[in-house]
Amino acid sequence: MLKTFKTGGVHPPENKLSAGKFIEVLPLPASVFIPVSQHIGAPSIPVVKRGDVVKTGQMIAKSGGFVSANIHSSVSGKVKKIDSQIDASGYMKQGIFIDVEGDEWLDEIDQSEELMKEFDLNGEEIIKKIQDAGIVGLGGATFPTHVKLIPPKGMKADILIINGVECEPYLTSDHQLMMEKVEEILVGTRLLMKALQVERAVIGIENNKPDAIRLFTEKAKEYGHIDVTALKVKYPQGGEKQLIRAVTGREVPSGGLPVAVGAVVSNVGTSFAVYEAIQKNKPLVERIVTITGKEVAKPSNFRVRIGTPISMLVEAAGGLPENTGKIICGGPMMGKAVTSLEVPVTKGTSGVLLLKKQESKRKNAIACIRCSRCVSVCPMGLEPYLLMTLSEKQIFDQAEGNRIMDCIECGSCSFTCPSDRPLLDYIRLGKGKVGQIIRTRKK
Amino acid sequence: MSITIVYTIVTLSAIGTSAAVILYFVAQKFKVYEDPRIDQVEEILPAANCGGCGYAGCRAFAEACVNATSLDDLNCPVGGNETMSKVAEILGLEAVKKDAKVAYIRCNGTCDQRPKTNTFDGVGNCAVAALVYGGESDCQWGCLGYGDCFDVCDFDAIELRADLGVPKVIDDKCVACGACVDACPRDLIELRKRFPKDRKVVVACRNQDKGGVARKACSVACIGCGKCEKECKFDAITIENNLAFIDSDKCKLCRKCVSVCPTHSIIEENFPPRKVKVEIEECSTAK
What we know:
The structure holds two protein chains of two kinds. Chain A has 14 helices and 17 strands. Chain A is an alpha/beta fold. Among the domains of chain A are: 123-279, Rossmann fold (3-Layer(aba) Sandwich); 373-442, no CATH class. Chain A has a six-stranded mixed sheet with strand order 1-14-13-17-15-16, sandwiched between helices. In chain A, strands 2-8-7-4 form a four-stranded antiparallel sheet, with no helix packed on it. In chain A, α1 crosses α4, α4 (182-196) crosses α7 and α11 packs across α14. In chain A, 51% of the residues are buried. Chain B has two domains: 36-91, 3-methyladenine DNA Glycosylase II, Chain A, domain 3; 101-286, Alpha-Beta Plaits, CATH 3.30.70. Chain B contains eleven helices and eight strands. In chain B, the strands form four sheets. A two-stranded antiparallel ribbon of chain B has the order 1-4. In chain B, α2 (36-44) runs antiparallel to α4. Chain B starts with a helix and ends with a helix. The chains are: A alpha/beta, B alpha+beta. Chain A binds chain B through residues 84, 86, 89-92, 336-337, 339, 361-362, 365, 422, 425-426, 428-429, 432, and chain B through 117-118, 121-123, 125, 127-128, 131-134, 140, 209.
């Protein structure tokens, strides 16, 4: 019997069109736009100015607080301007424009592909290096990794869970990375274990990736204390709380941090970035991005420099199909539709999905038929139909009482609703308002 | 048969009388004193229960008035000075004359002026759309057009026209309760001084982007050029963040700024038609 989380979950069609496509390196763009806010927390503060010449890997914005991350130039060239442009959030965001000239890396960065297993740093040094390299959670939530590794006082992690679930349909970037960089991910996991001072790590992989499970089970033996767990396919298993429940059986309390039950979750992409940052001195300047869609000529996985416009990705995959209805940054369940192809790839962009017109059209909502499907699929055990009504009628005190803040915005309720009601849209609205109310109350 | 009826009547009357006696004493014992003036004040108030005064309803406002020592901070925007002076009369306090207000909508990006660059097929609700992105045009500051203001207005003072795409305030119905101000996620609606005959001169734009970016997104965007600021003789106009702002307390409705604005983002409403001059005529046809 395979493990999985207990409450709710849905099974959207997988559509992993780009599975098994080797990671290709996307050519350098002519210019990049690197937003200063690519992570959860305070925006970074630019440390370069117009006209400065930067090298690849050079820090161009320093973190704006503890919960924030450094940002490094992903290309070499000249800073054109610091201005705002539209990004995946749908709003104009401040960022740094760099005109690309050649590809000159900082000297201390080791660009070789050679595997380096040994390290002699202690936990604090590892965390320091991770912080300097600007590493954030690469699964999509982009929470700064160094913050996760320093648990609040009085709490101690005893298990590290590496997230190789990739439960979003269409996306294959993590899967392909796991297939190609298995040793590096395992070394990265060892480094994270040392930083956290935990004795045990588990890599959770859904069993629709049997090749990755086999490969990791075999290789993990050499490293010790790292187990591989095959998980039953179910969305949203990649959610932090769901993964902890699936792997360890522990339940994160409402409003609590995962470390409250002794678990820290990190993505395989993050593990790889940690390996590169520590063993190769390479900050987070590129990531793996899936470009996919049913009409796309060449669905593939690319290694992309941060700040590259997604138009380049679309081009590399064979151009924009004629009947594209929506362009989505991220997966189909949690991704965001963008309004421009100039939107840059950021640290949190795991994929770009081009949906056909027929697929992207939202149906008209009709009345709720009280079937309670949304309740049975909610992975957090909430009552989405109720939260939607409360948000719509602006009854925020009751919404808070019904734990609206626990919603992880996975979209299972909207996906399953037979009346096509916009459940998540309203819940997100209510969540924002309730969050504001809670913050004002604390002040 | 008839005796049963008599018994019933006697028993029920006895129960009724004793209950009445008990209730009389209970009512005496638990009597709550309420200032009779609260009822009097509530009588005068417009009974709209709109919340424009900042209280939960007219009753709550009446209580607040009776308990207050001065009426300086209390104002019923619906009833205006007339109502407040009557309230002051009952309470024996001094009513402060306050300027009547009216809602101004600071976006004129109608469908012709602001081309659509994408379509939104989510929930028809401004607040939801604002969470997702900047809107169907390239302007991230302007009206989203789903009518949250229209939905909250209890006085039918907001008109939504499909051909315009932005709401319009019907001035004589607007009571300045402020419900639309709170509802607009873009902060486009503002309460300002109501001039005689509901005349308005307003910078109908909130776009704080640089001139070029703003103009590209919308042909009637304020580009922050500063012409109006120079033209204004009363120092009523200031430019901040590439955006002009008219201080309605200083504005004398001379409309010089309307004439000089190169993008026609300053608009005049409810004025009689201007005397025909050649250049201005061109201007109005362009509009």
